[in-house]
Amino acid sequence: MSSTFKVVSDIATIARMNKDLGKRLSKTFKVRRSREITYPAGHETGTVYFEAAMGDGVRAWSPSNRSDKLINFLLLGDPNTSAWMQIDVQLNFPAGAYNRRMAGVFVTDENGDAFVAHRGKLTKGRAGLPREKVYREFAAQMIEAEDQGRRSKLILLSALDDPKLADRLWKFATEARDVATRIAGEEGDTGEEGAGAAGGGAESTGPKKKPRSTPKDSMLKLRDYFDEYAGEGTMKGHGGGKRTVEHGDIVKALESLLSVNGKSQKAQAIDLAIVASEVDLYEVKTSARTTDVYTAVGQLIIHGECIRELLELPVRRHLVLPTPPRADHRKHVTKKGGIAIITYEKTQTSYRFMGLR
User: Following CA atoms 194, 196, 198, 203 in sequence, which dihedral angle do they give, to the nearest 10 degrees?
Assistant: First the structure.
């Protein structure tokens, strides 16, 4: 059963959650500097908090409150220079009155847990990027949330109380910058102006490019693997908010381990494919519940046949689970379905996989 996510639209609650976010981030970002901050619409002098007092590419955070928005700029830079800093991501929330123009979103799941999410508003230079292409890059983190009578697609970044909150947010910031460059290239925009300005929010200006049409089989179109964000083909989550976030971490660890065996690729509906003289197809689930096993087996069989026809290569299928499925199911999955079962366990820094071949 999928999780039910709901966007927090009450302004007082948003302000309280943003204050909580600030308290958590201030424990990591303590080195204060005054810097000139640049973004697509212009620049301003602001207070920037760095994670460390020295270094190149140090993570930094610049918060401020305005009448219409609560600002969180995520940046990278050298704390000991006077060079202007370019925003990687703007994680801004509405203030005064609720609106959907801000890129930052707080959501809650069916358990009442709070999360930080992003609407996928990224820019390259002054041009806004096609939202669906941004969603494609972050497929494993995608959810749908009830948003005052409508459904909004969001990128789920982190639980608000996650000890790795800062790591998750700045990982997204770094990936968003790379995604902006990739998509701008697809759109024929070199993005010479503000190459790293993958910001989003009301302040983003400039003409938006019309998304190009995509082929009907785009969900199965393999492309170069992009960090841990692979695809489930669903916008409902993975049975729980925290597991939705975890899914991407597992896929990333798996790809890092297997990339030596061939070319790492993905598609919106495919978690990971390692392409060499044959294709190893991997489907990751964060639970071994019967419904998840059924879904994964169906995905592997159907997607595997599609990939076999497209690439004209033999396909080996792998189901990745936290624990083995029921014994009777396991027998039929492996013998009748021809699917290898891999299990994983979380380690201190990553994941360990059992059953890889």
Answer: -30
Average pLDDT over the chain, rounded to an integer: 83
Q: Which two tokens stand for residue 69?
A: 């928005």
Cβ atoms within 10 A of the Cβ of 181, count?
16
Burial of residue 38 (number of CB atoms within 10 Å: 0-12, 13-18, 19+) = middle
Beta-strand relationship, 42-50 and 263-267: unpaired
The answer, yes or no, to whether residue 168 has pLDDT greater than 60, is yes
Maximum alpha-carbon separation in the chain: 65
Q: Please state the rounded mean pLDDT for residues 285-304.
A: 91
Whole-number Å distance between alpha carbons of 315 and 278: 6
Instruction: Write out the two tokens for 222.
Output: 């393999």
End-to-end CA distance of the chain: 31
> What CA–CA distances, in Å, run from 56 to 76, 78, 164?
8, 5, 22
- Identify the DSSP state of 156: E
For residue 190, pLDDT beyond 70: no
- Reduced to 3 states, what is the DSSP secondary structure of residue 112? coil
pLDDT tens-digit map of 195-226: 333 444 333 333 333 333 333 444 445 555 43
